Amino acid sequence: MKAAIRALILEKDKARGMVPSPRYGKTDTVYGAYLTELNPRGNKDLQLALASSADPRFREFLDRLMSLRYKRMALATIAKGCGIDLAEFNKWWNQASTQQAIAIAQSKSLDITRDMAEDARTVDAVCERCDGLAFIPAQSGLPLETPGYRPMTGPEGEVLWIRSCPVCQNGKVRKPGDPHARDRVLEIGGLLKREKSGINIIQNFGGASHSSAVQDLDDAMPLDVPFEVME
């Protein structure tokens, strides 16, 4: 008798073994916790995906969610009543949310590209040497032909000597755009193709001496690195 009752309230699920039937879905704590986290009654993105699903079971799940008849029913009970087990719901939501994420990325790609193109441009920036003043303090007694060399009155009436900033013009300097943004914009525009590079490292030196092994490694992995002479 007990076996017969147990057979009535349990069903075989390949993904999880013996789980409660739709009638007793509220006791399926794992499925219930998953659906509670998704919050189908408050998650608008999930509801949109359910409404547009090609699988009628998921559209039925949404209809029941919105029905007063199922208001007090456990989420797992509703889902199992529509014939949707945990593995199916998880797989479906993974695919649906991925498509939504792609749609969001596509809709924002124009704005991102515009921002990237703006970051790539060279712009005028305040000179850091003179803080945009176009002059810097100078010592007295400099040659009079020093560019912009002249006296000025200080805040307490004292005489201060200044000269033109040697870095900027009128307090502004040209600041190159972000190099990574430049590369990406040129790649998107088809004006720059990034070449794939690889390094082959020989691990088996065949018992060669250290010096010959290093020479072999240098031959196998030439490095063409520009250098800068420091003065």
Give a written overview of the molecule.
- This protein is of the alpha+beta class and 231 residues long.
- It has 3 domains: 2-96, no CATH class; 107-122 and 176-193, no CATH class; 124-175, no CATH class.
- It is built from 8 helices and 7 strands, in the order H-E-E-H-H-H-H-H-E-E-E-E-E-H-H.
- It has helices at residues 2-9, 29-38, 44-51, 56-65, 75-81, 86-120, 179-188, 210-220, and strands at residues 10-13, 17-20, 123-126, 135-137, 150-153, 159-164, 172-175.
- The strands form 3 sheets. Strands 4-6-5 form a 3-stranded antiparallel β-sheet, with no helix packed on it. A two-stranded antiparallel sheet has the order 1-2.
- Helix 4 (56-65) packs antiparallel against helix 5 and helix 6 crosses helix 7.
- It is elongated, with a radius of gyration of 36 Å.
- Summed over residues and divided by their number, the pLDDT gives a mean of 80
> CA-to-CA gap between the ends?
96 Å
Biggest sheet layout: 3 strands, antiparallel
Count of discrete domains = 3
> How much of the sequence is in beta strands?
5-15%
| H/E element order | HEEHHHHHEEEEEHH
Residue stretches low in confidence (pLDDT < 50, at least 5 long) are: 7-22, 220-231
Shape: elongated
Helix content: 40-55%
Number of strands: 7
Topology:
Layout: H1 2-9, E1 10-13, E2 17-20, H2 29-38, H3 44-51, H4 56-65, H5 75-81, H6 86-120, E3 123-126, E4 135-137, E5 150-153, E6 159-164, E7 172-175, H7 179-188, H8 210-220
Antiparallel strand pairs: 1-2, 3-7, 4-6, 5-6
Helix pairs in contact: 4-5, 6-7
Short note summarizing the structure:
The protein has 231 residues and is α+β, with helices and mostly antiparallel strands. The protein has helices at 2-9, 29-38, 44-51, 56-65, 75-81, 86-120, 179-188, 210-220, and strands at 10-13, 17-20, 123-126, 135-137, 150-153, 159-164, 172-175.
